[in-house]
């Protein structure tokens, strides 16, 4: 059987219909297997369309993994992600083509490589406040960015989850938002009063009218299209750079550090592990247990101040008032210029 036919079955039948895999995962698998196919064809000195399932040897896969680390300078984590995609394909072969089971089993027996765990990069409460303060609300995208940063910290959602939020997922009356996470699983998150108030204000007064194709999305970029994961990370990187010294930025993943900070805040507040797991959308409790190993004896009074800030409404927020005053002044100046 040609490998290209097998891949067509994998992407158009197995992943969407049998597994119900999310679009993000399908895209990640497609990228990984595209790299692998080009390497595999070169490895066997044949064209991609001539590849067969029998060309999926353990030696070829191991050579590909070595190529990723040595030639492409990929990290061990990236190497393991590429291997996971190949193993996913192997599972389909084992399931849908039992006569090729021996080939599939060989691939599935390839172990993941152990990687050195990085220090978890999270922000302390006073640093969160500095990042919030770095937003210039006088700029047209200021309120959107201000709202996104609050939502990232409050919800613990991933950048991709924030980018794909839909307009109807937000319930202002109950101060909740539904988040579609990994594995196409929804989780309902109770928001702090301030975050819910900011989202309502953003929708009512600052959300750009999108082109019809993206009218269902909550956050819209300057081109009137939906936000992307890369766009969310760019926003986070911008304000982290403005608020924190360069040395502090090392080890911080732009959007993910807000997710870690949310978890750390819940741990120091005494939240049950199950609550943290559900809020972050972890599939395994082991992922959540990582946060319990941190030394969090840092400025309890500052954390309390941040908690009070997040629970407050924005009615008397000084920065919002300044924005309103600036907008009013701009309207007056425009009127005077028209005389």
Automatic annotation (TrEMBL):
Q: Which InterPro entries match?
A: CB, DNA_brk_join_enz, Integrase-like_cat_sf, Integrase_catalytic, Integrase_recombinase_N, Integrase_SAM-like_N, Tyrosine_recombinase_XerCD
UniProt domain Tyr recombinase: residue ranges: 118-304
A Pfam match is Phage_int_SAM_1
Record's keyword annotation contains DNA-binding: yes
Q: Name one GO biological process term.
A: DNA integration
Q: Which domain of life is it from?
A: Bacteria
Listed A to Z, the keywords are: Chromosome partition, DNA integration, DNA recombination, DNA-binding
Molecular functions per Gene Ontology: DNA binding
Among PROSITE patterns, the record links this protein to: CB, TYR_RECOMBINASE
Do you know which PANTHER family this protein is assigned to? PHAGE INTEGRASE-RELATED (PTHR30349), TYROSINE RECOMBINASE XERC (PTHR30349:SF81)
Core-binding (CB) domain spans which residues? 5-94
Q: Does the keyword Magnesium apply?
A: no
The protein's name in its UniProt record: Integrase
Name its species.
Answer: Desulfobacter hydrogenophilus
The lineage, from the top, is: Bacteria, Pseudomonadati, Thermodesulfobacteriota, Desulfobacteria, Desulfobacterales
């Amino acid at each position: 059987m040609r490998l290209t036919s097998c891949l067509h079955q994998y992407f158009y039948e197995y992943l969407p219909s049998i597994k119900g895999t999310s679009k993000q995962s399908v895209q990640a698998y497609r990228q990984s297997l595209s790299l692998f196919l080009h390497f595999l064809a070169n490895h066997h000195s044949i064209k991609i369309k001539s590849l067969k399932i029998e060309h999926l040897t353990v030696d070829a896969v191991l050579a590909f993994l070595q190529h990723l680390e040595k030639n492409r300078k990929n990290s061990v984590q990236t190497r393991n992600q590429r291997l996971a995609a190949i193993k996913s394909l192997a599972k389909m072969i084992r399931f849908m083509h039992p006569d090729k089971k021996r080939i599939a089993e060989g691939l599935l027996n390839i172990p993941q490589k152990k990687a050195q765990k990085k220090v978890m990069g999270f922000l302390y409460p006073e640093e969160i406040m500095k990042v919030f303060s770095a937003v210039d609300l006088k700029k047209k995208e200021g309120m959107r960015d201000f709202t996104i940063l609050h939502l990232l910290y409050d919800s613990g959602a991933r950048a991709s989850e924030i980018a794909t939020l839909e307009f109807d997922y937000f319930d202002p009356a109950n101060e909740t938002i539904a988040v579609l996470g990994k594995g196409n699983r929804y989780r309902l998150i109770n928001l702090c009063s301030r975050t819910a108030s900011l989202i309502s204000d953003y929708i009512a007064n600052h959300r750009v009218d999108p082109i019809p194709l993206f009218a269902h999305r909550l956050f819209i970029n300057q081109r009137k299209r939906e936000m992307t994961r890369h766009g969310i990370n760019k926003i986070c990187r911008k304000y982290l750079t403005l608020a924190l010294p360069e040395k502090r930025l090392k080890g911080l993943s732009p959007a993910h550090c807000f997710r870690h900070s949310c978890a750390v805040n819940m741990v120091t507040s005494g939240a049950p592990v199950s609550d943290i797991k559900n809020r972050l959308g972890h599939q395994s409790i082991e992922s959540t247990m990582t946060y319990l190993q941190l030394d969090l004896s840092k400025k309890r009074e500052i954390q309390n101040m941040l908690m009070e800030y997040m629970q407050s409404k924005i009615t008397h927020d000084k920065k919002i008032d300044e924005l309103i005053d600036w907008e009013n002044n701009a309207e007056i100046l425009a009127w005077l210029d028209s005389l």
